[in-house]
Structures are given as structure tokens and as C-alpha cells.
Design goal:
The chain is mainly α. It is built from nine helices and no strands.
Amino acid sequence: MENKQTFNLQSVIEDAKSMITNPVGFYRNLSKTGGLSDPIIFVLVMGVIAGLIFAVFSLLGLGRMAGAGFGAVIFLPIMLLIGSFIFAAILYVIWKLMGSENNYETAYRCVAYSLALLPIMAVLSAIPYIGTLIHTLWGSYLMYIASIEVHRLAPKISMIVFGVLALIGLMSNLGAEKSSRMMDVHMGKFGEHMEGMEDMTPEEIGRAAGEFMRGLEDGAKAE
């Protein structure tokens, strides 16, 4: 399925469609070996597509990455690639503790192809909290399916482990998004205050800076 000798964009897209529409079947047929080149290419392609979406949103002033610009097309795939290796290492340890006999390569393949939903999540990022909610729950569900179909672990223990991880991730991610959005609001207000800075007295500049700092503190507390 995902074993390809040369880069083929159509095959990558087909793998993404298969993962989204039939994750159980995809993981059931996933090759546990074959090198990391194919999953790495898959991660990079998903990152580029998502980066393009964020770049368009940047032109329209939408989404959490509205200020990212076309730099997202370069930096997002790189960050995703690094993150995928780290996340796979964490899950490799978790799966080992659960009794999996598979190696790190298998864990990485499970993680890499789970990013198929990333372009959709990029689109949903324009809607507050919805993208974060779906991404966290869907990602946890995919790792649950991977536990059963790839690592051959018991469904009950897999559901408990990834259910708990989903709950922790949901609280953490939603809290981080709330904090980030509050920060954006205060940054915008501070920018408005500073527009006429040359006409402001030192006292007025001090008050504007104070309001900005209080906004940062509120954002940190909200997280």
C-alpha cells in the first residue's frame, strides 16, 4: 500500500484518503517495515498542503496562524517532521509498556500516516476550538486503532490508555488555544493603543503598556 520506490504524489493522496475514510483497514494492512522514507515523505507532503492552507488564511487574516504567511509552507513541514519523530518515540515507549513487540520504525509509521487529517484540521483552524477538539479526539482514536490492528494489543487496555491520553490532551490543547487567542486579542489592543504613540504622553504610554502586561498575565492564568 504505502511502499513506493519513487515519489508519487497521487499515491500519497490515495494513502491519505484511505486513512481518513477507512483507518481500520489502513492500519490492518500497514507494513511494519520498509524503511522510513515513505512515511517521512507523507509527513512532509501533508505539512506542505497544510502550510499552503495557512498561507491562504494569512492573506485573508483568518485562523490562529493568520500571521504566518507563506513561511508556513517551509516551517510547518519541518516542525511536523521533528515532532513526528518525538511523538513516535513517546508512543513507542507507551506501546512497549502495553506489551507491543514492534520496533520504533513501526511506531513511526503509525504516527506518520495519522497526519492524513492535517489539511482538514488546517481548514478547521479558522473555527475557534473545533479544529483542536477534532484533532485531539481523532488522533487518539487513530492511535487506539493502531494499537489493536498494528501492535495487536487488547482493545480494552488500549481504550483505557488512549482514552486517558485523549482527556489529558484535550484539556491541555484547549487551554493552550484559549490562552493563545486571549494573547492575540491583547496584542491587537496594544497595537491599537500604539498607533498614535507619537502623540501620547509618557503617562498614556505607561498605561497602555500596563494594560498589555495585565493581558499577558490573564492569558497565562487562563492556560
